[in-house]
Amino acid sequence: MDVDLVVPLKHPRVGKSRLRGAVGEAEHAELVLALAYDTLAAVTSAAGVRRVLVVAADPAAVSELAGLGVELVTEPGDGGLNEALRHGAALLRDGEPGGIVGALQADLPALRAGDFADALAEAAGRRAFVADHQGTGTTLLLSAPGAPLDPRFGAGSAQRHTDSGAVPLAGAMVSLRSDVDTSDDLEHVRALGVGKRTAALLPDGTVPLG
Fold first, then answer.
1. Phi and psi dihedrals of 81, rounded to 5?
2. Spatial separation of the C-alpha atoms in residues 100 and 192, rounded to whole Å
3. Nearest-CA neighbor of 32 among 149, 186, 173?
4. Helix %, strand %, coil % of the chain (to 5)
5. What would the DSSP string read from start to end of 171-195?
6. Neighbours of 72 (CB within 10 A)
7. Cα 124 from chain centroid?
8. CA-to-CA dists, residue 86 to 31, 37, 42, 180, angstroms
9. To bridge 109 with a disulfide, which of 2, 23, 179, 198 should be the other Cys (CB 3.0-4.6 Å)?
10. If DSSP codes are grouped into helix, strand and coil, which group holds residue 12?
11. pTM
């Protein structure tokens, strides 16, 4: 079955606070937006993705993402990340109540469409998740068809998703596990190869994806 995705996104000026200093302060917001742009460019080209809904703190600040074919909506109130994801999942379910809904992080600039397709294939309709490369966080959470997404993101989310009955996917899917929160993470994805928007902001020697 195809999947509908919800992607949460803070305002680029305040997102990714632990990345401050990785580029000049004036370029920080541009870097946050580039991470999201390259993530969405990859996932919108992946087989099995039907809709992508970005739940943004300020849709106007990220309006250029609509050019990738994604939909933009405003996050609800101050409910936090999981509330934003539940809101997005409910909107997607209005159009496809029996479908699969997924929550994807917006900081995967090395993402390959093939890794995302591999995750969908391994999940095979089960509520499942992909842990980050440290094994503690979650980069992708998938619902079962027509079933609640039940997001439990935050510190230690991999264990919380396991405890809630989600299946941890075991495939390599290196690019899908490589989220970027710190400068060390940024060095990790540079070695993998990142999307062109992110590569343009990083020092010489960064490998762009093809």
1. -60, -50
2. 29
3. 186
4. 40, 20, 45
5. S--HHHH---SSHHHHHHHHHH-B-
6. 18
7. 20
8. 26, 22, 23, 23
9. 198
10. coil
11. 0.94
What's the farthest any 2 CA atoms get from each other in the chain? 47
Three-class SS state of 136: coil
Q: Is the pLDDT of residue 103 over 80?
A: yes
- Residue 65 tokens read as 């993402």
Tokens found for residue 111: 């993402």
Q: How many CB atoms lie within 10 A of CB 79?
A: 12
Contact at 8 Å (CB) between 176 and 113? no
3-state secondary structure of 65: helix
Q: Which helix (H) or strand (E) holds 158?
A: helix 157-163
Please give the structure tokens belonging to residue 12.
Answer: 């680029």
The pLDDT tens digits for 179-208 are 999 999 999 999 999 999 999 988 765 655
pLDDT digits (tens, 9 = 90+) for 114-168: 999 999 999 999 999 999 999 999 999 999 999 999 999 999 999 999 999 999 9
Helix (H, G, I), strand (E, B) or coil at 208: strand
CA dist 187 and 192 (Å) reads 9
